[in-house]
Amino acid sequence: MAPLLSVRGLKVHFPISRGIWSRDVRYVKAVDGVDFDIAPGESMALVGESGCGKSTLGAAVLGMQIPTAGVISFAGEDVRHGERQTRIRLSRDIQTVFQDPVAALNPKMSIGDSIAEPLAIHGVGDAKERAERVAELLSLVGLHPQHAERRPNAFSGGQRQRIVIARALALQPKLLILDEPVSALDVSIRSQILNLLLDLQRRFGLSYLFISHDLSVVRHFADRVAVMYLGKLVETGPTETVFARPVHPYTEALLSAVPLPDPVAQRARRRIVLTGDLPSPANPPAGCSFVTRCPLAEEICRRVPPPLVAAGKQERAACHVRASRLNEEGSFA
Amino acid sequence: MTGPVLAVSDLSVSIRGNTVVDGVSLSIHAGEIVSLVGESGCGKSMTAFAVMGLLPKVARIDKGRVELGGSDLVSISEERRRQLRGAELAMIFQEPVASLNPLMPIGKQIEESLIIHRGASSREAKAAAIDMLAEVGIPEPQLRYRQYPFELSGGMCQRAMIAMALICRPKLLIADEPTTALDVTIQAQILELMKRLREETGTAILLITHDMGVVADMADRVAVMYSGRIVEEAPVDAIFAGQRHPYTRLLLSTIPRLDGAAKTELPVIEGMVPDIGSWPAGCRFNPRCPVAGDRCLSEQPALSPRPDIGRAACWHSDRVEALV
């Protein structure tokens, strides 16, 4: 199937200069050469720790961040360089849900007006039709259509996230970018929102780019996963296989660091505790970006950045020690 | 076994007349980690603040005792409480960067309590602070001693806060969501560090969290709070093996798991946490409870012994296992 979203060689670099008179302009390479596809109806999770560039990548796909290089195409059309009309159409097809539903809603607008706003901007229907659509969207996300006149402060955090989801669905998008959509919610509310998102995906064939640091949620939610470290993808593949048999040592450490909600199983696990912090993205290591924390690092890792290569039927990984070696042995040639 | 380090009995706290903590009893022994679990607004942080004597001005303790090593923290003077805080009991918070003084070098903040409470000279204090920085796993402690919080990463700030809390070897450490703001690989480092320090110093830890994975990893005993009350309490293995309160049962079942099924419908707890001040009559979980009966609507269940070990507050605790 042709991909709905295709990202090739995407780079987002932010210039930083040292000192007022210095001409030595350096860059924070927030996203540094990323390729991936999302098929219609598929959900792909982007995981990684804070500062790895996952939200910047999401913002670039949304068009809220201008890429330094690379191509983002949606249903075969270039998102950035197309005609104005094309770009307006694409902006309807790609919508977003952010982490904090309190900040995402205008406190002075009724929730009905908030949900109708994208319809008004894109000139969809008249006032009456828009009101009908708002009622339909509210019941779709499990809220009372009669509550459209209320302001956001009349709703709890979980309900506000439902309102934000309703607004994101107003223009019948094909792709939703979900940036930590349940991280700010209480545990008992999280599962309600995850169920809602999965249900909406089944009903409307939505594609999701799911940005999250919560690996348990990702395991439950996503078909495919891409692990990001310092602006680069280090491993991609079907969620099941990546979580069962991680190839990249970073993925392995990340998974082993998540404590299981089961004391007996947790005691039996071996935790790989990484030493040190994420290096500054302004000054990444020369070779593999993970080399400073990697328990397997060899001499080559310090010099040469590893390419993202096949490491299984559908998996790819960027590791000299594991993936490249598998390929040299010809296992996946 | 000697008596508990901390014994909270029948503690109630209210804010502007609305009860937020309602008759909480809890004890922690030396070297023990007790997890206080619950969602926002359940009163877990207010319980901790009451123990620390750090309640906001609008809050007041209506009744109950908070005994630390035998003396009641509720009735002692503010002066005495100040002497104990930092020396005998210490607290670390969720936001390490926000909890440190941005204008004071890390080392100065760590040694402050040693100088105030133990009367250490500045040379002794400096040496102790540098040792403590090394002990919590901060590389180049000599350099870090002189640096300011903005020069350290979030994980390092959390380590610095732990160093600050433990430098006087307190009997009790309260950790309020200590790893919630951190990435998982950094969380793993901090959790390992807390376990190691507990082994070495015998400090009792009250760990407040909403992350059941962290609970399973760290706790010896677990107390679950809902709407101001403890609804279930048991040793960690017992509570994960079998629950006797429907809230605990449902809470554990709603979490997606690394080793769980993918893309299935997760069990949910219907409705939402009731607002403080509008708690329902009877059992406060009754509007969301699938096993609630008539009695639950009018009578509040007391925390009574579970059949194996621990306590639960439910009129129908025998029906909980059949849920989900």
Automatic annotation (TrEMBL), chain A:
GO annotation, biological process: peptide transport; transmembrane transport
Membrane topology note: Peripheral membrane protein
Record InterPro entries: AAA+_ATPase (IPR003593), ABC_transp_ATP-bind (IPR050319), ABC_transporter-like_ATP-bd (IPR003439), ABC_transporter-like_CS (IPR017871), Oligopep_ABC_C (IPR013563), P-loop_NTPase (IPR027417)
Pfam families cross-referenced by the UniProt entry: ABC_tran (PF00005), oligo_HPY (PF08352)
A Gene Ontology term for the protein's cellular component: plasma membrane
Keyword Transport appears in the UniProt entry: yes
Domain ABC transporter, residue spans: 7-255
Subcellular location: Cell inner membrane
Gene3D superfamilies the UniProt entry points to: P-loop containing nucleotide triphosphate hydrolases
Protein name (Swiss-Prot/TrEMBL): ATP-binding cassette domain-containing protein
Automatic annotation (TrEMBL), chain B:
Presence of keyword Membrane: yes
GO biological process terms held by the UniProt record: peptide transport; transmembrane transport
ATP-binding as UniProt keyword: yes
Key words of the record: ATP-binding, Cell membrane, Membrane, Nucleotide-binding, Transport
Domain of life: Bacteria
An annotated GO cellular component: plasma membrane
A GO molecular-function annotation: ATP binding
Domain ABC transporter stretches: 6-252
Main location: membrane
Family as reported in the entry's similarity comment: Belongs to the ABC transporter superfamily.
Protein name in UniProt: ABC transporter ATP-binding protein
Organism annotation: Aliirhizobium smilacinae
